[in-house]
Protein backbone atom coordinates (compact mmCIF):
# COMPACT_ATOMS: atom_id res chain seq x y z
CA UNK A 1 0.00 0.00 0.00
CA UNK A 2 2.81 2.39 0.92
CA UNK A 3 4.67 1.44 -2.26
CA UNK A 4 1.52 2.04 -4.30
CA UNK A 5 0.97 5.47 -2.77
CA UNK A 6 4.61 6.31 -3.42
CA UNK A 7 4.21 5.47 -7.10
CA UNK A 8 1.03 7.55 -7.35
CA UNK A 9 2.73 10.56 -5.76
CA UNK A 10 5.68 10.21 -8.15
CA UNK A 11 3.29 10.14 -11.08
CA UNK A 12 1.70 13.40 -9.91
CA UNK A 13 5.08 15.00 -9.22
CA UNK A 14 5.99 14.33 -12.85
CA UNK A 15 2.85 16.10 -14.02
CA UNK A 16 3.56 19.03 -11.69
CA UNK A 17 7.25 19.02 -12.71
CA UNK A 18 8.13 19.30 -9.02
CA UNK A 19 10.05 16.91 -6.81
CA UNK A 20 9.13 17.44 -3.15
CA UNK A 21 11.87 17.08 -0.55
CA UNK A 22 9.12 16.54 2.01
CA UNK A 23 6.54 14.20 0.42
CA UNK A 24 4.32 14.60 3.47
CA UNK A 25 3.51 18.14 2.34
CA UNK A 26 2.14 16.91 -0.98
CA UNK A 27 0.11 14.24 0.81
CA UNK A 28 -1.52 16.83 3.09
CA UNK A 29 -2.20 19.11 0.10
CA UNK A 30 -4.07 16.20 -1.51
CA UNK A 31 -6.20 15.41 1.56
CA UNK A 32 -9.69 16.89 1.61
CA UNK A 33 -11.23 17.70 4.99
CA UNK A 34 -13.96 15.06 4.49
CA UNK A 35 -11.27 12.35 4.66
CA UNK A 36 -10.18 13.51 8.11
CA UNK A 37 -13.71 13.62 9.54
CA UNK A 38 -14.01 11.42 12.59
CA UNK A 39 -10.38 10.29 12.31
CA UNK A 40 -7.62 11.36 14.66
CA UNK A 41 -4.39 13.07 13.63
CA UNK A 42 -5.14 13.29 9.94
CA UNK A 43 -3.94 16.56 8.47
CA UNK A 44 -6.00 17.98 5.62
CA UNK A 45 -5.42 20.75 3.13
CA UNK A 46 -7.47 23.70 4.39
CA UNK A 47 -4.66 25.49 6.23
CA UNK A 48 -2.38 25.03 3.22
CA UNK A 49 -5.09 26.51 1.02
CA UNK A 50 -5.11 29.61 3.29
CA UNK A 51 -1.38 30.06 2.75
CA UNK A 52 -1.38 29.10 -0.93
CA UNK A 53 -3.90 31.79 -1.80
CA UNK A 54 -1.45 34.47 -0.62
CA UNK A 55 1.52 32.87 -2.39
CA UNK A 56 -0.51 32.85 -5.60
CA UNK A 57 -1.60 36.48 -5.15
CA UNK A 58 1.93 37.76 -4.63
CA UNK A 59 3.37 35.69 -7.49
CA UNK A 60 0.82 37.04 -9.96
CA UNK A 61 1.00 40.59 -8.54
CA UNK A 62 4.75 40.74 -8.94
CA UNK A 63 4.65 39.26 -12.42
CA UNK A 64 2.07 41.81 -13.59
CA UNK A 65 3.84 44.67 -11.79
CA UNK A 66 7.21 43.91 -13.40
CA UNK A 67 5.99 43.01 -16.86
CA UNK A 68 3.36 45.69 -17.43
CA UNK A 69 5.16 48.80 -16.27
CA UNK A 70 2.78 51.07 -18.19
CA UNK A 71 -0.42 49.70 -16.66
CA UNK A 72 -2.14 51.57 -13.84
CA UNK A 73 -2.96 50.10 -10.45
CA UNK A 74 -6.62 49.79 -11.50
CA UNK A 75 -5.72 47.86 -14.65
CA UNK A 76 -3.40 45.56 -12.72
CA UNK A 77 -6.05 44.86 -10.09
CA UNK A 78 -8.61 44.01 -12.78
CA UNK A 79 -6.24 41.61 -14.53
CA UNK A 80 -5.21 39.97 -11.30
CA UNK A 81 -8.85 39.32 -10.41
CA UNK A 82 -9.32 37.57 -13.77
CA UNK A 83 -6.26 35.40 -13.17
CA UNK A 84 -6.61 34.59 -9.47
CA UNK A 85 -10.07 33.04 -9.36
CA UNK A 86 -11.76 29.70 -8.91
CA UNK A 87 -12.23 29.32 -12.65
CA UNK A 88 -8.57 29.42 -13.55
CA UNK A 89 -7.59 27.26 -10.57
CA UNK A 90 -10.16 24.75 -11.82
CA UNK A 91 -8.64 24.81 -15.31
CA UNK A 92 -5.22 24.02 -13.88
CA UNK A 93 -6.63 21.24 -11.71
CA UNK A 94 -8.16 19.66 -14.80
CA UNK A 95 -4.90 19.97 -16.73
CA UNK A 96 -3.06 18.18 -13.92
CA UNK A 97 -5.91 15.63 -13.70
CA UNK A 98 -5.73 16.15 -9.97
CA UNK A 99 -9.19 14.81 -9.08
CA UNK A 100 -8.07 11.21 -8.98
CA UNK A 101 -5.21 11.94 -6.57
CA UNK A 102 -7.33 13.58 -3.86
CA UNK A 103 -8.09 11.65 -0.68
CA UNK A 104 -11.71 12.24 0.31
CA UNK A 105 -14.50 10.48 2.17
CA UNK A 106 -16.63 7.88 0.36
CA UNK A 107 -19.63 10.17 0.76
CA UNK A 108 -17.87 13.09 -0.89
CA UNK A 109 -16.69 10.83 -3.70
CA UNK A 110 -20.18 9.42 -4.32
CA UNK A 111 -21.64 12.90 -4.70
CA UNK A 112 -19.15 13.91 -7.38
CA UNK A 113 -16.40 15.29 -5.14
CA UNK A 114 -13.62 14.42 -7.60
CA UNK A 115 -15.13 16.81 -10.12
CA UNK A 116 -16.32 19.51 -7.70
CA UNK A 117 -14.90 22.87 -8.77
CA UNK A 118 -14.30 24.18 -5.25
CA UNK A 119 -12.49 21.01 -4.08
CA UNK A 120 -10.23 21.01 -7.14
CA UNK A 121 -9.47 24.75 -6.96
CA UNK A 122 -8.68 24.57 -3.22
CA UNK A 123 -6.37 21.65 -3.85
CA UNK A 124 -4.37 23.64 -6.42
CA UNK A 125 -3.90 26.43 -3.85
CA UNK A 126 -2.80 23.87 -1.26
CA UNK A 127 -0.22 22.44 -3.67
CA UNK A 128 1.14 25.96 -4.32
CA UNK A 129 1.59 26.37 -0.55
CA UNK A 130 3.28 22.97 -0.34
CA UNK A 131 5.81 24.03 -3.00
CA UNK A 132 6.37 27.30 -1.10
CA UNK A 133 7.05 25.58 2.22
CA UNK A 134 9.21 22.94 0.56
CA UNK A 135 11.36 25.21 -1.61
CA UNK A 136 10.76 28.88 -0.76
CA UNK A 137 9.13 31.81 -2.51
CA UNK A 138 11.36 31.96 -5.59
CA UNK A 139 10.60 28.38 -6.64
CA UNK A 140 6.91 28.73 -5.77
CA UNK A 141 6.68 31.87 -7.89
CA UNK A 142 8.25 30.14 -10.89
CA UNK A 143 5.88 27.20 -10.36
CA UNK A 144 2.88 29.55 -10.35
CA UNK A 145 3.95 31.55 -13.41
CA UNK A 146 4.77 28.39 -15.33
CA UNK A 147 1.32 26.97 -14.65
CA UNK A 148 -0.64 30.20 -15.06
CA UNK A 149 1.09 31.51 -18.17
CA UNK A 150 -1.80 30.70 -20.54
CA UNK A 151 -4.31 32.28 -18.15
CA UNK A 152 -2.14 35.38 -17.74
CA UNK A 153 -1.80 35.78 -21.48
CA UNK A 154 -5.56 35.51 -21.96
CA UNK A 155 -6.19 38.01 -19.15
CA UNK A 156 -3.81 40.50 -20.70
CA UNK A 157 -5.43 40.10 -24.11
CA UNK A 158 -8.87 40.37 -22.48
CA UNK A 159 -9.72 36.89 -23.71
CA UNK A 160 -11.02 35.48 -20.47
CA UNK A 161 -14.74 34.96 -20.78
CA UNK A 162 -16.70 34.54 -17.59
CA UNK A 163 -20.13 34.08 -19.13
CA UNK A 164 -20.09 32.05 -22.35
CA UNK A 165 -23.83 32.33 -22.97
CA UNK A 166 -23.69 36.13 -23.02
CA UNK A 167 -20.57 36.06 -25.18
CA UNK A 168 -22.22 33.70 -27.69
CA UNK A 169 -25.24 36.01 -27.85
CA UNK A 170 -22.97 38.98 -28.56
CA UNK A 171 -21.05 37.18 -31.27
CA UNK A 172 -24.16 35.80 -33.01
CA UNK A 173 -26.01 39.11 -32.97
CA UNK A 174 -23.37 40.76 -35.08
CA UNK A 175 -25.22 39.15 -38.01
CA UNK A 176 -28.56 40.65 -37.00
CA UNK A 177 -31.18 39.46 -34.56
CA UNK A 178 -31.16 35.72 -34.05
CA UNK A 179 -32.65 33.36 -31.55
CA UNK A 180 -30.34 31.00 -29.71
CA UNK A 181 -31.93 27.91 -28.28
CA UNK A 182 -30.66 25.76 -25.42
CA UNK A 183 -32.25 22.30 -25.25
CA UNK A 184 -31.75 19.83 -22.43
CA UNK A 185 -31.35 16.58 -24.36
CA UNK A 186 -31.03 14.18 -21.44
CA UNK A 187 -29.99 13.73 -17.86
CA UNK A 188 -28.64 10.71 -16.06
CA UNK A 189 -27.49 9.48 -12.67
CA UNK A 190 -29.00 9.65 -9.18
CA UNK A 191 -30.50 12.98 -7.96
CA UNK A 192 -27.49 13.94 -5.83
CA UNK A 193 -25.10 13.39 -8.75
CA UNK A 194 -27.19 14.09 -11.81
CA UNK A 195 -25.47 14.90 -15.10
CA UNK A 196 -27.20 17.26 -17.54
CA UNK A 197 -26.69 17.25 -21.34
CA UNK A 198 -27.54 20.40 -23.26
CA UNK A 199 -27.20 21.41 -26.88
CA UNK A 200 -27.25 24.94 -28.21
CA UNK A 201 -28.57 25.71 -31.67
CA UNK A 202 -29.58 28.50 -34.02
CA UNK A 203 -32.17 27.80 -36.75
CA UNK A 204 -32.05 24.10 -35.91
CA UNK A 205 -28.30 24.00 -36.56
CA UNK A 206 -26.53 22.56 -33.53
CA UNK A 207 -23.57 24.77 -32.60
CA UNK A 208 -22.31 22.99 -29.53
CA UNK A 209 -22.97 20.44 -26.80
CA UNK A 210 -22.26 20.61 -23.11
CA UNK A 211 -22.37 18.40 -20.02
CA UNK A 212 -22.57 19.61 -16.43
CA UNK A 213 -23.74 18.85 -12.91
CA UNK A 214 -26.42 21.53 -13.22
CA UNK A 215 -28.50 22.76 -16.16
CA UNK A 216 -26.71 26.09 -15.95
CA UNK A 217 -23.28 24.47 -16.10
CA UNK A 218 -24.25 22.30 -19.09
CA UNK A 219 -25.56 25.38 -20.94
CA UNK A 220 -22.38 27.33 -20.26
CA UNK A 221 -20.33 24.39 -21.50
CA UNK A 222 -22.45 24.11 -24.66
CA UNK A 223 -21.98 27.84 -25.37
CA UNK A 224 -18.25 27.50 -24.72
CA UNK A 225 -18.01 24.64 -27.24
CA UNK A 226 -19.95 26.66 -29.81
CA UNK A 227 -17.57 29.62 -29.41
CA UNK A 228 -14.54 27.35 -29.67
CA UNK A 229 -15.80 25.76 -32.89
CA UNK A 230 -16.52 29.17 -34.41
CA UNK A 231 -13.03 30.33 -33.50
CA UNK A 232 -11.47 27.23 -35.11
CA UNK A 233 -13.50 27.80 -38.27
CA UNK A 234 -12.25 31.39 -38.45
CA UNK A 235 -8.59 30.45 -38.07
CA UNK B 1 17.32 71.12 -2.15
CA UNK B 2 18.74 67.75 -3.12
CA UNK B 3 20.79 67.70 0.07
CA UNK B 4 17.72 68.61 2.08
CA UNK B 5 15.62 65.87 0.53
CA UNK B 6 18.46 63.42 1.14
CA UNK B 7 18.50 64.33 4.82
CA UNK B 8 14.73 63.95 5.08
CA UNK B 9 14.86 60.51 3.47
CA UNK B 10 17.66 59.47 5.83
CA UNK B 11 15.57 60.60 8.78
CA UNK B 12 12.66 58.45 7.62
CA UNK B 13 14.93 55.48 6.92
CA UNK B 14 16.07 55.67 10.54
CA UNK B 15 12.47 55.53 11.73
CA UNK B 16 11.75 52.61 9.40
CA UNK B 17 15.03 50.91 10.40
CA UNK B 18 15.65 50.26 6.71
CA UNK B 19 18.45 51.51 4.47
CA UNK B 20 17.38 51.48 0.83
CA UNK B 21 19.96 50.53 -1.78
CA UNK B 22 17.76 52.29 -4.33
CA UNK B 23 16.55 55.53 -2.73
CA UNK B 24 14.37 56.21 -5.78
CA UNK B 25 12.02 53.43 -4.64
CA UNK B 26 11.39 55.14 -1.31
CA UNK B 27 10.80 58.44 -3.09
CA UNK B 28 8.16 56.89 -5.35
CA UNK B 29 6.52 55.18 -2.35
CA UNK B 30 6.21 58.61 -0.74
CA UNK B 31 4.66 60.28 -3.79
CA UNK B 32 0.88 60.58 -3.83
CA UNK B 33 -0.89 60.58 -7.22
CA UNK B 34 -2.08 64.17 -6.68
CA UNK B 35 1.53 65.36 -6.86
CA UNK B 36 1.95 63.83 -10.33
CA UNK B 37 -1.25 65.35 -11.72
CA UNK B 38 -0.51 67.44 -14.80
CA UNK B 39 3.23 66.79 -14.53
CA UNK B 40 5.16 64.56 -16.90
CA UNK B 41 7.28 61.56 -15.89
CA UNK B 42 6.52 61.71 -12.20
CA UNK B 43 6.09 58.25 -10.72
CA UNK B 44 3.63 57.93 -7.85
CA UNK B 45 2.89 55.19 -5.37
CA UNK B 46 -0.30 53.50 -6.63
CA UNK B 47 1.39 50.64 -8.47
CA UNK B 48 3.63 49.99 -5.47
CA UNK B 49 0.56 49.91 -3.26
CA UNK B 50 -0.89 47.17 -5.52
CA UNK B 51 2.23 45.06 -5.00
CA UNK B 52 2.68 45.91 -1.32
CA UNK B 53 -0.78 44.67 -0.44
CA UNK B 54 0.17 41.16 -1.64
CA UNK B 55 3.55 41.23 0.13
CA UNK B 56 1.77 42.18 3.34
CA UNK B 57 -0.87 39.45 2.91
CA UNK B 58 1.70 36.70 2.37
CA UNK B 59 3.93 37.89 5.22
CA UNK B 60 1.05 37.84 7.69
CA UNK B 61 -0.41 34.60 6.29
CA UNK B 62 2.86 32.76 6.67
CA UNK B 63 3.46 34.11 10.14
CA UNK B 64 0.01 33.03 11.33
CA UNK B 65 0.27 29.67 9.52
CA UNK B 66 3.63 28.81 11.12
CA UNK B 67 2.97 30.16 14.58
CA UNK B 68 -0.60 28.98 15.18
CA UNK B 69 -0.42 25.40 14.02
CA UNK B 70 -3.55 24.47 15.95
CA UNK B 71 -5.79 27.14 14.45
CA UNK B 72 -8.19 26.26 11.63
CA UNK B 73 -8.25 27.94 8.23
CA UNK B 74 -11.37 29.89 9.29
CA UNK B 75 -9.68 31.18 12.44
CA UNK B 76 -6.56 32.18 10.49
CA UNK B 77 -8.62 34.03 7.88
CA UNK B 78 -10.49 35.94 10.58
CA UNK B 79 -7.29 37.00 12.33
CA UNK B 80 -5.63 38.00 9.07
CA UNK B 81 -8.57 40.25 8.20
CA UNK B 82 -8.18 42.00 11.56
CA UNK B 83 -4.47 42.53 10.95
CA UNK B 84 -4.43 43.43 7.25
CA UNK B 85 -6.80 46.38 7.16
CA UNK B 86 -6.80 50.14 6.72
CA UNK B 87 -7.02 50.67 10.47
CA UNK B 88 -3.78 48.90 11.33
CA UNK B 89 -1.95 50.38 8.35
CA UNK B 90 -3.06 53.79 9.62
CA UNK B 91 -1.74 53.02 13.11
CA UNK B 92 1.66 52.17 11.65
CA UNK B 93 1.68 55.30 9.47
CA UNK B 94 1.03 57.39 12.58
CA UNK B 95 3.80 55.61 14.49
CA UNK B 96 6.25 56.39 11.67
CA UNK B 97 4.87 59.95 11.46
CA UNK B 98 4.80 59.41 7.73
CA UNK B 99 2.32 62.18 6.84
CA UNK B 100 4.96 64.88 6.74
CA UNK B 101 7.17 62.92 4.32
CA UNK B 102 4.52 62.45 1.63
CA UNK B 103 4.71 64.51 -1.55
CA UNK B 104 1.23 65.65 -2.52
CA UNK B 105 -0.47 68.50 -4.36
CA UNK B 106 -1.13 71.76 -2.56
CA UNK B 107 -4.86 71.12 -2.94
CA UNK B 108 -4.64 67.72 -1.29
CA UNK B 109 -2.54 69.16 1.50
CA UNK B 110 -4.98 72.03 2.14
CA UNK B 111 -7.87 69.60 2.53
CA UNK B 112 -6.10 67.56 5.19
CA UNK B 113 -4.30 65.08 2.95
CA UNK B 114 -1.43 64.57 5.38
CA UNK B 115 -3.84 63.13 7.92
CA UNK B 116 -6.15 61.30 5.52
CA UNK B 117 -6.43 57.65 6.58
CA UNK B 118 -6.51 56.21 3.05
CA UNK B 119 -3.46 58.19 1.88
CA UNK B 120 -1.45 57.15 4.93
CA UNK B 121 -2.49 53.49 4.74
CA UNK B 122 -1.72 53.27 1.00
CA UNK B 123 1.67 54.83 1.62
CA UNK B 124 2.55 52.12 4.17
CA UNK B 125 1.68 49.44 1.61
CA UNK B 126 3.82 51.21 -0.99
CA UNK B 127 6.78 51.30 1.42
CA UNK B 128 6.37 47.55 2.05
CA UNK B 129 6.57 46.99 -1.73
CA UNK B 130 9.63 49.23 -1.94
CA UNK B 131 11.40 47.13 0.71
CA UNK B 132 10.39 43.97 -1.20
CA UNK B 133 11.78 45.19 -4.53
CA UNK B 134 14.92 46.56 -2.88
CA UNK B 135 15.79 43.54 -0.72
CA UNK B 136 13.59 40.56 -1.56
CA UNK B 137 10.80 38.70 0.20
CA UNK B 138 12.72 37.53 3.27
CA UNK B 139 13.70 41.06 4.31
CA UNK B 140 10.25 42.45 3.46
CA UNK B 141 8.62 39.74 5.60
CA UNK B 142 10.83 40.57 8.57
CA UNK B 143 10.06 44.27 8.07
CA UNK B 144 6.32 43.55 8.07
CA UNK B 145 6.37 41.29 11.11
CA UNK B 146 8.56 43.71 13.04
CA UNK B 147 6.14 46.57 12.38
CA UNK B 148 2.93 44.58 12.80
CA UNK B 149 3.88 42.62 15.90
CA UNK B 150 1.69 44.65 18.28
CA UNK B 151 -1.28 44.41 15.91
CA UNK B 152 -0.77 40.66 15.48
CA UNK B 153 -0.63 40.15 19.22
CA UNK B 154 -3.84 42.11 19.71
CA UNK B 155 -5.57 40.18 16.92
CA UNK B 156 -4.58 36.87 18.45
CA UNK B 157 -5.80 37.94 21.87
CA UNK B 158 -9.00 39.29 20.26
CA UNK B 159 -8.13 42.74 21.51
CA UNK B 160 -8.65 44.61 18.27
CA UNK B 161 -11.66 46.82 18.64
CA UNK B 162 -13.24 48.13 15.47
CA UNK B 163 -16.00 50.15 17.08
CA UNK B 164 -14.92 51.92 20.28
CA UNK B 165 -18.34 53.42 21.00
CA UNK B 166 -20.01 49.99 21.07
CA UNK B 167 -17.17 48.60 23.15
CA UNK B 168 -17.45 51.42 25.69
CA UNK B 169 -21.20 50.80 25.93
CA UNK B 170 -20.58 47.10 26.61
CA UNK B 171 -17.96 47.78 29.26
CA UNK B 172 -20.00 50.43 31.05
CA UNK B 173 -23.22 48.42 31.08
CA UNK B 174 -21.60 45.69 33.13
CA UNK B 175 -22.41 47.96 36.09
CA UNK B 176 -26.09 48.21 35.19
CA UNK B 177 -27.91 50.52 32.80
CA UNK B 178 -26.15 53.81 32.28
CA UNK B 179 -26.40 56.62 29.79
CA UNK B 180 -23.29 57.62 27.89
CA UNK B 181 -23.29 61.10 26.47
CA UNK B 182 -21.23 62.41 23.56
CA UNK B 183 -21.00 66.21 23.42
CA UNK B 184 -19.47 68.18 20.59
CA UNK B 185 -17.55 70.85 22.50
CA UNK B 186 -16.22 72.85 19.55
CA UNK B 187 -15.16 72.78 15.94
CA UNK B 188 -12.59 74.82 14.11
CA UNK B 189 -11.08 75.40 10.68
CA UNK B 190 -12.57 75.97 7.23
CA UNK B 191 -15.48 73.74 6.07
CA UNK B 192 -13.31 71.50 3.87
CA UNK B 193 -10.89 70.85 6.74
CA UNK B 194 -12.99 71.18 9.84
CA UNK B 195 -11.79 69.63 13.09
CA UNK B 196 -14.36 68.36 15.58
CA UNK B 197 -13.82 68.08 19.34
CA UNK B 198 -16.00 65.69 21.30
CA UNK B 199 -16.10 64.61 24.92
CA UNK B 200 -17.77 61.52 26.28
CA UNK B 201 -19.21 61.44 29.78
CA UNK B 202 -21.36 59.43 32.16
CA UNK B 203 -23.27 61.23 34.91
CA UNK B 204 -21.44 64.44 34.07
CA UNK B 205 -18.08 62.79 34.62
CA UNK B 206 -15.90 63.24 31.54
CA UNK B 207 -14.35 59.89 30.56
CA UNK B 208 -12.45 60.91 27.45
CA UNK B 209 -11.91 63.49 24.75
CA UNK B 210 -11.45 63.02 21.03
CA UNK B 211 -10.58 65.05 17.94
CA UNK B 212 -11.41 64.11 14.35
CA UNK B 213 -12.17 65.34 10.86
CA UNK B 214 -15.78 64.23 11.24
CA UNK B 215 -18.12 64.12 14.24
CA UNK B 216 -18.10 60.34 14.02
CA UNK B 217 -14.32 60.14 14.07
CA UNK B 218 -14.10 62.49 17.07
CA UNK B 219 -16.65 60.38 18.98
CA UNK B 220 -14.78 57.17 18.22
CA UNK B 221 -11.55 58.80 19.40
CA UNK B 222 -13.22 60.02 22.60
CA UNK B 223 -14.53 56.51 23.31
CA UNK B 224 -11.08 55.06 22.57
CA UNK B 225 -9.48 57.44 25.07
CA UNK B 226 -12.08 56.55 27.70
CA UNK B 227 -11.39 52.83 27.25
CA UNK B 228 -7.64 53.41 27.43
CA UNK B 229 -7.93 55.38 30.67
CA UNK B 230 -10.11 52.71 32.24
CA UNK B 231 -7.61 50.04 31.26
CA UNK B 232 -4.74 52.02 32.78
CA UNK B 233 -6.71 52.48 36.01
CA UNK B 234 -7.27 48.72 36.20
CA UNK B 235 -3.61 47.88 35.68
From TrEMBL, chains A, B:
Ranges for domain DRBM: 163-232
Residues at the catalytic site: 53, 125
Entry keyword set: Cytoplasm, Endonuclease, Hydrolase, Magnesium, Metal-binding, mRNA processing, Nuclease, RNA-binding, rRNA processing, rRNA-binding, tRNA processing
The keyword Nucleotide-binding appears for this protein: no
GO molecular function, one term: identical protein binding
SMART domains: DSRM, RIBOc
Alphabetical GO biological process terms: mRNA processing; regulation of gene expression; rRNA processing; tRNA processing
GO cellular component: cytoplasm
Enzyme Commission number(s) from the entry: 3.1.26.3
Domain of life: Bacteria
Annotated RNase III domain residues: 9-136
UniProt cross-references to Pfam families, sorted A to Z: dsrm (PF00035), Ribonucleas_3_3 (PF14622)
Catalytic activity reported: Endonucleolytic cleavage to 5'-phosphomonoester
Keyword tRNA processing among UniProt keywords: yes
Subcellular location: Cytoplasm
Cofactors required: Mg(2+)
Binding site for Mg(2+): 49, 122, 125
Enzyme class: hydrolase
Biological role stated in the UniProt entry: Digests double-stranded RNA. Involved in the processing of primary rRNA transcript to yield the immediate precursors to the large and small rRNAs (23S and 16S). Processes some mRNAs, and tRNAs when they are encoded in the rRNA operon. Processes pre-crRNA and tracrRNA of type II CRISPR loci if present in the organism.
Record family assignment: Belongs to the ribonuclease III family.
Subunit relationships: Homodimer.
HAMAP family: RNase_III (MF_00104)
Name used for this protein in its record: Ribonuclease 3
Amino acid sequence: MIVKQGIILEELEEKLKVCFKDKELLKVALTHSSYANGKKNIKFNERLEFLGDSVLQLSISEYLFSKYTNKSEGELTKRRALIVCENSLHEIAKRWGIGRYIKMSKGEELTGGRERVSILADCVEAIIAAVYIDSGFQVAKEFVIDNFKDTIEKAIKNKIILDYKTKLQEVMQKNGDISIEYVLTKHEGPPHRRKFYTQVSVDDKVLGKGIGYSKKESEQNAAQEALKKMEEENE
